[in-house]
Design brief:
This protein is of the alpha+beta class and 336 residues long. Helices cover 29% and strands 23% of the residues. It has an 8-stranded mixed β-sheet, sandwiched between helices. It has a 5-stranded mixed β-sheet with strand order 12-11-13-15-14, with helices on both faces. It has a two-stranded antiparallel ribbon with strand order 1-2. The longest helix has 22 residues. The chain is globular. 47% of the residues are buried. The structure holds 2,5-anhydro-1,6-di-O-phosphono-D-glucitol and manganese (II) ion (MN) (2 copies). One manganese (II) ion binds next to strand 5.
Length: 336
């Protein structure tokens, strides 16, 4: 039996100690998120046993049907972050507006310095089929000085993120995060209730032979996009073609597999949806931060995701993300 291990909390404290000026708040905030995700994990695993499956009958701000577990995951995250007291605003894919938060510990030296964005349950249409789903989060420092956060605090470029991560509720529950010093992966050991380090400083292969895209939309794409997919399917041993197709329909799960084995994930624009489907603040920015820290690349086809200036909380963006060489090649095709 292994007697030496590193928990998630111990790892973030170790990282924090490399910054003598750090107050410890970011570590505590990450711990609040990890706790919420452990509870979501428990509910996801129990979903087949109790009556939490199925639609609530409500629509979220994107006009999509919301499932009960989305609502639950959202509430758990909002409550955990509110109680933690480190956050001045919470922005969720499931909430129309950002939620400003008061400083619950007023009169102290530290205050609610951070803003958190999250997609509480990503891939929720897969819940009933027992396919992996996940939570994605992204953390910024506030701009404003004090009090509850405002819109400018919430609409920052991805490059300003101080930490980001995701949890996949799959054959096991794993947590992957970056605080700007590499990407680190943890597995939840349910018997001790802790995320334990399994992969420090993860790197994505520079080139791959795997693509992840909803190819059913082929007819709706522009010519460049179609040509790229045609190209990677043509046999050519030297360049690893034809590529294998892997698309499960949960971005976190597709992204995580590509991070480990190499691959490109694309959700492009199409004739109906000029900005594709995925959201800049809840999905693209956090995964772009992670992939860059792992040596990969993330763009909207011609601009770096992390440099895009957000205009609204729920804005969508075309996403090309994964192994560097693959993303660069796809960009060549879509830019003619
Ligand atoms: P969410 O469940 O948070 O709404 O996200 C679903 C997203 C993403 O996870 C996935 O990659 C994509 O939608 C799948 O879309 P298509 O069904 O259009 O392929
Ligand atoms: Mn999502
Ligand atoms: Mn979601």
């Amino acid at each position: 039996m292994k007697t030496k291990f590193t928990t998630f909390y111990r790892h973030i404290i170790k990282e924090e100690r490399k910054h003598p000026e750090a107050t410890g708040q970011l570590s505590d905030l990450l711990a609040d998120i990890a706790l919420a995700c452990k509870i979501i994990s428990l509910e996801v695993n129990r979903a087949g046993l109790v009556d939490v499956l199925g639609f609530t009958g409500e629509k979220n701000v994107q006009g999509e049907m919301v499932k009960k577990l989305d609502v639950f995951a959202n509430e758990i995250l909002v409550n955990s972050l509110t109680a933690g007291g480190h956050v001045c605003a919470v922005c969720s894919e499931e909430e129309e507006h950002f939620i400003p938060l008061k400083d619950v510990y007023a009169n102290r030296l530290l205050q609610n310095r951070y803003v958190v964005h999250f997609d509480p349950l990503d891939g929720s249409s897969n819940i009933d089929a027992n396919i992996s789903i996940g939570t994605i989060f992204s953390i910024y420092k506030r701009f404003s000085e004090s009090g509850p956060g405002n819109e400018a605090d919430c609409l920052q470029q991805g490059i300003k993120q101080v930490a980001a991560g995701y949890v996949v509720y799959g054959s096991s529950t794993i947590l992957v995060y970056t605080a700007g010093r590499g990407v680190h992966g943890f597995t939840l050991d349910p018997s001790v209730g802790e995320f334990l380090l399994f992969h420090e400083d993860m790197k994505i292969p520079k080139k791959s032979s795997t693509y992840s895209i909803n190819e059913g939309n082929y007819c709706k794409w522009d010519k460049g996009m179609q040509k790229y997919i045609d190209f990677i399917k043509q046999p050519d041993k030297g360049s690893g073609r034809p590529y294998s197709s892997r698309y499960v329909g949960s971005l976190v799960a597709d992204f995580h597999r590509n991070l480990l084995y190499g691959g490109i994930f694309i959700y492009p624009s199409d004739e109906k949806n000029k900005n594709g489907k995925l959201r800049l603040m809840y999905e693209a920015n956090p995964l772009a931060f992670i992939v860059e820290q792992a040596g990969g690349r993330a763009t909207n086809g011609n601009q770096r995701i992390l440099e895009l200036q957000p205009e609204s909380l729920h804005q969508r963006v075309p996403l090309f993300i994964g192994s560097e060489d693959d993303v660069k090649l796809a960009e060549k095709f879509v830019n003619g």
